[in-house]
Design brief:
36% helix; Rossmann fold; Pept_tRNA_hydro; 195 residues; alpha/beta; hydrolase; Pept_tRNA_hydro_CS; 7-stranded mixed sheet; single chain; 6 helices
Amino acid sequence: MTDEAPFLVVGLGNPGREYAGNRHNVGFMVAELLASRVGGKFGRHKRAVAEVAEGRLGFGGPKLILVKPLTFMNLSGAPVVALSQFFKVPVENVIAVHDELDVPYGQVRVKRGGGEGGHNGLRSMSKSLGSKEYARVRFGIGRPPGRQDPADYVLSDFAGAERKELDFLVDRAADVVEAVVLEGVEWAQNKYHGS
């Protein structure tokens, strides 16, 4: 980790009120909670099609640049690259927060690098950054029931039973992001993968 460089935390989602409660937008939900924790307010950035909030983790702690790309999911990479260059963030300090079909609902997983698992937001980020070596905080949404198309599933809102736990899980995902920033990916895996 680079001591002085800030961390770019990218909440992946789609802009617009009609998508706000979608499973695919859980990255935005986590970014918004983190902004409230660090006292940051989202506003449009002049260099990228994105909303950005800034703050520090703890007193004098690492600087967080929280990002909600305002492009659609499959074009997320362009604003991420623009902001990583503007704020001079190395790729190892980039953290994507996203929904994950391959992780059961209620679980949050962390990894660095690897494939995109068909996630268009990650695919766009990897292509634009020219690297897959950024960290990912993977918010489990599970597989769609029956024969539902995964594309329709991710663009649907959380079910009633899921919504009962959603605030708690978004809170936990924000804790995981903070752990990755403060202690690193392996430490976060050891702490959170058992729960």
